[in-house]
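hey so i finally got around to running both of the ones u sent me last week. sorry it took forever, my laptop kept dying halfway thru and i had to restart like 3 times lol. anyway pasting them below in the order u listed, first the sequence line then the C-alpha cell line for each. didnt double check formatting much so if smth looks off just lmk and ill redo it

first one:
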Amino acid sequence: MKKLIESKLTPLAAACIMAMSATVVQAQERYVIQIDNNGKGIVKALTQQNGGRIKVEGDGFIAAEFDGFSLEQVKGVLNNPHVKLVEVDQIRKSMAVYNDDAGNPMTTQVTPYAVYQSEANQVTFNPNAGIKVCVIDSGLDSSNSDFVWNNITGDNDSGTGNWFDAGGEHGTHVAGTIGAADNGFGVVGMAPGVEMHIIKVFNAEGYGYSSDLSKAAQLCSAAGADIINMSLGGGGANSTEENAFKAFRDAGGLVVAAAGNDGNTTRSYPAGYSAIMMIGANDADNNIASFSQFPSCATGRGKQTTTDETICVEVTAGGVNTLSTFPAGLATSSGLSADSTNYVSSSMENTGSAAGQTFFMGTAEATNAGADGKICVIDRGVISFFDKVNNCELSGGIGAVIINNEPGILSGTLGTTNTTSIPAVGAALEDRSALLAAANMNISITSSDYGFLSGTSMATPAVAGLAALVWSNHPSCTGEDIRAAFKATAEDGGAGGKDVYFGYGIVKASAADAYLTANPCGGTEPPPPPPSGDFSLSANGYKSRGTQVVDLSWSGATTSNVDVYRNGQFIAVTANDGSYTDALNIKGGGSYTYLVCEESSSTCTSSVQVVF
C-alpha cells in the first residue's frame, strides 16, 4: 500500500513496513523485590528514595520500575536485610496463535503462518477451474523459480519496462503470497500455482497514476482474469478509475485493494471505491496491525449521514512479518538448529555459518572468555543488539543467537554502524528453554530468494489468493458471491461484531468453502438437497442484555439427533427435540444463515437467515 504525494503513488520502499527491532538501550526496566513483610515499609521507602516507582504490592513482594537501572544496580541500592531477592519482572503476553514452519526456504518448503490462520491448508486448490488472478504492481522477477511460469503472463504499462523484470521486491513478494508453487522448496501460496497475469504499473521512480490503474483494469479483463489484486493506493478519488473497476466487478469479477499503512482513519483509493473490497492487516496473534488504516463506513454529516460497508475495511488477513518470494538473492535467510533440531530464526546480520558448542552469556553486557570458540546464546534486553554481538565476538565467539524477551521471533538488525563479522540470528522466546539446554548449535545466514515484509500490501494478496482457492471449488460463483461468503464466515476480531478495524473479521477459507457448499451459487453447481418430507426450520433472533441470541425451531427430522450449522459451519449436534438456542455473545449487528440437518446426513431443512 502506498501513500499519495501530488496525486502520485510514492516509491515502492514506502509500500511496506519492514520488520525491525530497536537497537537502543532500554530506558526503563521493572523488577520484582521479594521482601520480609515486617520490613516492607523500609524497603518501599528505600525504593522510592532511589527513584523507583512502585507498581505492584503483594504479600511478600513489591514490583517497581526504575529508569536506566540494571538488575545489578537495583540489587546494590536495595542492599537491605529485609530484601530476600531482586529479579526482572518478566513480560507476559498470550502466546503466538500461528507460526511459520521452521526451516530455510532455500532448501525446504516453508508454509507461512497466514496459510494456517486463514485455513487455506484445509482447502484443496482446483487448477482445472481456470481461475486467474491479475496482479497490478511492480512486476514479477523471472529469476525466482518458485512459480509455475507456464501459468503466468503479463503486460507492461507505458514506460514501466518488462513485466517480468521486477522493480524492487514488492510485486514479487505479493505474487508469491497469492500463488507460489507447492513444489517442496520455498514458500507455498494461498492458491499454489494459480494462473496469474502481471501488469507492471510503476515506473523507475516507483509510482503510477490513476489512469495507469484504469488501463490496467481493462488489460486484466482482456487477459481473462477473475480477480484483481492491488497492494497499492493513495489519496483522492478519480471517477475514470472508479468506473474501470466497477465495470470489472459488474462483469462478475472480484477486486481487492489495500486499506493503507498509516494507521489512521484516512480512506485510501482505489480501496475506498464501493466496487473494491478493502483489506486490512492482522498479525499472527489475531491482533489488528498497528499500521492498518481504518476509515469510517459513514459519509456526510448530520441527517445527511449515510453508511456503506463497502467503502471501509471489510475483512483482514495476515500482513505482519509475512514470508514470501523475493527477486533472487535480494533477501537473506537464516538457519538455526540445536542438538540436530531445527528452530525458527531470523537473519539479523553478517552472512556466513558457524557450528560448535554453546555458551550462555545472559544479556551479554560484558565480554566473557567462556565464549571463546563457541556460539553465544544471549537474552534480549538492557543493551543494544550490536553491543551483545560485539561482546560475543570480542570474547572469541564464532556466532550469536539472540532470544526474544516477548512471545514471537526476534526480528532486527545490528544497526547501520555494525562492525561485527560473525553471523547473528534472532530466535523466539517460546524456544528459549530448548536453546539454553542445547549443547551444540549450527547457525547460518545466506543470501535468499525469500524475505519478510509487513503491510496491508501483504494482507491483500492473501485475500486474493484465498478467493482464487475458494472460487476454484465453486466456479459458478461470481466475485460478489465470494466477497459475501468471506464476510459471512470471517472470524470476528477485536470488539464483538463488525468494526472499523477488522470489518467482519479474519478471512477463513475453509469456513467460506463450507458456506458455499451449503449455500451454492447459481449455474452449474447442484442445488441443495430438498427438505425431507415436512422437515422445516424457523428462527427467531433477539437480544438478551445487549448480546445476540437465536432460537431455532424445527420439525420433520427422523434421526435421534440433528446437526446445526451457522453460516455453513457446523456448530452443534443436539437432541431432535425441535428446539435449539444459539447464544452468540456478540453485540451490535450481524447476519447469520442457519441450517438443520439429520445427524451425519445431507437431508437438511432450507436455509433460514436472521439479521440483527
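and the second one:
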Amino acid sequence: MRTSPQLRRKLISVAAVSAALLTAVPASAAVAQEAAPRPAAQTEAAPGVQAERLIVGYKSGASEATSNKAAAADAESKAEKTGEDVDFQRRLGTGAALVELGTHPTRASVADVVAQYKADPQVAYVVPDRLNKPTAVTPNDTEYSKQWDLFESTAGMNVPGAWDTTTGSGVTVAVIDTGYVTHSDLATNIVGGYDFISDTAVSVDGNGRDSNPADPGDWYNANECGQGIAASGSSWHGTHVAGTIAAATNNGKGVAGIAHGAKISPVRVLGKCGGYDSDIIDAITWASGGTVSGVPANTNVAKVINMSLGGGGACSSATQSAINGAVSRGTSVVVAAGNENQNVSNASPANCSNVIAVAATNRSGSRASYSNYGSLVDIAAPGGETRTSTANGILSTLNSGTKTPSSENYAYYQGTSMATPHVAGLAALMKSANSALTPAQIESAIKANARALPGTCSGGCGAGLADAAKTVQAVKGGTSTGTTFSSTAAVAIPDNGAAIESPISVTGRSGNAPSALQVGVDITHTYRGDLVIDLVAPDGSAYRLKSAAADSADNVNTTYTVNASSEAANGTWKLRVQDTAAQDTGTLNSWKLTF
C-alpha cells in the first residue's frame, strides 16, 4: 500500500518521538526498578522532544485563553521570533490551544518554539500532543462459564454477589477508545457517542470529527506506524472493553457484562497507529458534560469514563486539566496502568492525579507478567494471561474482521485494558446503588473493600484485588450518614500571599476519626492551579489535599477522602489554603467534615 505524503509525514514524526512519549505494548519486558514520579517541571515538553503539534495552556485572564484570534496572533508572534512555522489550529475543550508546527520539525526547532512559549508570562504550560495507543495484548474464543474473572473464588472479582443489589441501571459509562463495531450482545446498551479523531490519516473513515463513533478498523501494514513495527490486524479494542462493562445479560447468548444494566457511550479517539492527546482531552471533556467548541452538547453524560489506553512519559498539564475538569463535574476516570512491566510512573495517563489506575492480575491472582506496577497503582483487577492457555484471558464481544468489520464473535484478550473495564463496571454499579457518591468516595470505597491478592505482586498493585459484592454492599443506601460538621464563614484567599485557615470545632465524638474522613471543600478561584490545600488535625498534623499544579480551570468544589484514623476525632480541625502564585485571587466559601 502506498502511503500518502500527509500520513508519511506524520509517521516519520511519530517514529522519531522519544521513547518517553510513545511506547508499544509488549506482553513481557525487563522489570524496571521502582522509581518515584519525576517532578512536573522536569517532564513538560523538554528540549530534545520531537513533535508536530503542541498544546498550549494560557493563564486565566490572558486574552489568548479565550480568544482564538489572540491565540492565532500569539502563534504568529512565536513563528516570527523563532523562524519556524507555528499555526493555531483549534481550541480544546479545556480552553487550551492546539498549535501545529511545520513539516518535519527538528528537535532543535521544537525546542526553540517551546522555549518561546515557556518564556511568555501568559502561558501556564506547553506540552507535546502525544500519540496514545490501546493497551491490550492478544485474542481468541466464547460464554459465561468461561468468565472466570467474574466469579471464580481464587481470583475472580466476586461480581455476581453485587447483582442482587444493582446491575448499573441509570448510569452511562463512556468508553474512550477505538469506537464501536455492531454486536448483538451489546447493542441494547449502546447510546450515542462521538468520533473525536480530527486527523483523517488516523481516523481512516474518510472524514474528521462527527457524531458516528463506528469503528472502521485500526489495522496497519508493517512499518506504517514506525520503522520496525510489525503489521497488525484490526483490534476492535473498544468493543471488547465495552462488552466487559455492559454486555447484555440473561439474554440466552454470549457473555455477561459486569454492569449490564448500564449504558455505554462509545467515544472514538484511537485509529490507525493510535490517537492524539488533543482528541483524548476533548473526549474526556465532552464525555463528562463539558463543552467542546464545534461539538454538539452531550445528551448522554457519563458518570464513569473508561480509558484503556496510554503512552509513555509523565502526565501532561493539558491532560491533567481535562481529568480534573471531568472529576469536578462528578465523573470517575478509570485508566489502564499499562502493559510494559515497568513502574507506572512512566505511563500516562495512568500516572495522572484524580484517576483510578488499574493493574492486571492473572487467573491465580498474581500480577500479570506484562502489567505495570508501583505506588501510583490504585487497585488490581482481572486482566488475564494467555501464555499457558487462551482460556486464561478475558472473554468479551468482538468482530472477526481482520481489517474491516465482518461477522460478530467473542474472543479472549489479555491486558490492563481488560482489567480497567472491570473497575469501570464496578464504579457504575456503585453509582447506580448510591447516586450521591463522588469520584473520591468511589475510589476510596473500591480500595477500602478490596481483598488481598491471592497471589503475588512485585512492585505494588495498589489496595489489592477489587471485590464487587463487598464494595457495592458497603456503599448502598448512602455513605454520608455520619455526623457532619461545617463552616460557612467566607475567608478571602490573598493573591500569592500567606496561608489562610478556617476552623471547625468537632465535639461529641468518641475515639479516633475514621479511615475515610470526608472533607468537602468549596472554593471560588480564577486559577485553581495556584492553590495548595491542607487539612490540619487537632494535634497540628497536616494532610495534603491538593498541591499546586498547572491547572487553569476555575474553582475547587469537591470532596477529599483522608485516612485520619490516627487522629482524635474531637478538637479543632482547620482547613489551610494558600495561593502560591501571582495574578489570581479567590475565596474559601465553606468546608465540612463528615465522620
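quick thing i noticed on the 2nd:
Residues 1-47, 137-141 have pLDDT under 50 and may be disordered.
anyway thats it, ttyl
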